[in-house]
Design a protein that fits this description.
about 55% helix; mainly alpha; 3-stranded antiparallel β-sheet
């Protein structure tokens, strides 16, 4: 069994049908505004929700839209610093601004089945290949025959293509073309960390689906892991094919124990 099939929900993974992408994109602008507004690494989910619903930090036009926005952001990211995935996202978000679009994608991917289902179409495409909305619709219709109405299918396809555009995997407004995302040390660190939570260790971390999402090649991924290690974000040691990666700043004692059970 692939180790990524059943990562522990205790870390914040969600592995069930559906997800926020049936209604929204990965909401990068809203997440960025919210995390700028609530600029702390250790606050409760209630603080984020209050910022959205009561203080209207996202400038939504109605109370109903504020509530829905909070629900969608919670589904995508948890907005809870007690949740491992979100706490680690915050760690790199604050330290590596350039990584933010990919950090959002990685966390969304770990929590949203619809986004995960779309990845094969994106990652299998060659650079500059066109990815149409109709292709994405066909993928979802094949995956979930008859589940979505034509209007909903169109909306879902637009949402996931919008997320892949914001992450840097696609470019263009009406017509979408495959491109390479801009990858930095924070995104590589977070991808390796998520793979670690899924049970991967050593060199196998670099073959995980989360690192593959970055689409930047093995050599560059190792270089960025070394950069992250120099910055003190992770511990990365490599001698030939012997690789050790540790995350001392990102895991509580209880999480370390649970992560060891995943390996």
């Amino acid at each position: 069994m692939n180790k990524t099939e059943k990562p522990s929900s205790d870390f914040g993974f969600i592995r069930k049908n559906g997800g926020a992408h049936t209604a929204r994109t990965m909401m990068l602008d809203e997440l960025s505004t919210l995390l700028d507004y609530v600029s702390a690494e250790d606050v409760s989910r209630a603080t984020y929700i209050a910022a959205i619903e009561e203080e209207n930090c996202l400038a939504k036009p109605s109370g109903r839209s504020r509530i829905l926005t909070g629900r969608h952001l919670t589904a995508l990211y948890s907005l809870d610093t007690k949740v491992t995935l979100f706490r680690a996202l915050l760690f790199f978000w604050i330290r590596d601004k350039n990584s933010q679009p990919l950090l959002a994608l990685l966390c969304s991917y770990a929590r949203d089945e619809v986004l995960r289902d779309s990845a094969s179409l994106i990652l299998d495409a060659v650079e500059n290949e066109q990815i149409s909305r109709e292709q994405m619709e066909a993928l979802f219709e094949k995956k979930y025959p008859g589940r979505f109405s034509p209007a909903t299918l169109k909306s879902v396809a637009q949402n996931v293509n919008g997320s892949w555009t914001r992450s840097g995997h696609l470019r263009g407004r009406t017509k979408k073309y495959r491109t390479k995302p801009q990858v930095s040390a924070g995104a590589v660190s977070y991808a390796l960390f998520i793979a670690y939570l899924c049970g991967f260790r050593g060199l196998n971390l670099f073959s995980s689906e989360y690192v593959k999402l970055l689409d930047c090649g093995s050599v560059r991924t190792h270089e960025l892991a070394e950069e992250a290690s120099r910055r003190g974000w992770i511990i990365f040691k490599s001698i030939g094919d012997v690789v050790e990666v540790q995350f001392p700043q990102l895991l509580t004692a209880a999480e370390k124990e649970l992560a060891s059970e995943q390996a």
